[in-house]
Amino acid sequence: MAFFKKFFSHVIPQKDPDKSTIPVKDKPKPPYYGTVTPYPKFDATSDASTLQSAIKKVDKDVIFAVLVKRSNEQRQKIKAVYEASTGQSLDKALQSALHSHLEDLALALISTPAHFDAYLFRKATKGLGTREHILVEILATRTNQEIRDLKRVYKEVYKTELEEVIKSETSGDFTAALLAMLKATKDESTEINNDLAKRDSEILFEAGEKIKGTNVSAFIEILTTRSAPQLCKTFQQYATVSDITLPKALQLELKGDIEDCLIDIVKCSWNTSAFFAEKLHHAMKGLGTNEDALIRVLVSRSEVDLKKIVQEYKAMYGVSLQEAIRRDTKEHFESALLALCGPE
């Protein structure tokens, strides 16, 4: 939390707003920051047979030893072989063998990323109340292609357009912001345009602090379409036209769901790993544990940037994520989550 408090109160000095990042053509593939990697001696038939036996015996150790040590792509192959050889749905088989949070974790692990996101979106909008922060978390941290996949799968599974769900479950500027992210048109390049950053910072200043009221549409347009590196440059440029940081301006100018939404976008743009570290911290802070949040973050980021999230957690809270999990969870659920986190 201190990381973002510092960000909200002061201008972060590490990045020079007068220096552009020059993109390098044909640059090497970026390093992998996931904690789950493809199992080297993978055999889908053998794993499916092992899983079938473990489910029949309700051997939780074996079930999760298979699931957490295989990549998602490998799990899909295991699922296909299992269902072809047994004639039974793997989802239903796991539901019959497991219960509560272990069941939720197992089902999350055997879902494709798009199906898991669709399920999360459905769960966040179904029933009494809408879990707005989950909708923002998904749309603000997925790539354009992942959002397009989410929309396609949601329509296939739940027989309705995601746009209609958002319109029916949210309102006002918050709806506009979610729909803007759902367009999946965010710039994903690493190139930074200093002139654009300067222009955007002035537009945001004019739309907020300088006028009575707030031109929210200007904030939505810029924050939902610019790349993360470009927004970081804009945050720095904003400090040259205002006495306060952009996140602080958002806190002063906006209230409610739209304030939380745009601030989360700012956090993700500056440091996605720190954003998720904070989510995990809140899931285990105080009395009780939000197991759903632990599953959501650890599974969805295990092949993306969980290694960096683990590092940020230790830097932000002075204790390892693994130690925090050991304090707040137990037995098979604890061991499965620790396996997803990787070694300390």
UniProtKB/TrEMBL annotation:
Gene3D superfamilies: Annexin. InterPro entries: Annexin, Annexin_repeat, Annexin_repeat_CS, Annexin_sf. One of its GO terms (biological process) is cellular response to glucocorticoid stimulus. Transmembrane segments: none annotated. It comes from the Eukaryota. The keyword Mitochondrion does not apply. This is Annexin.
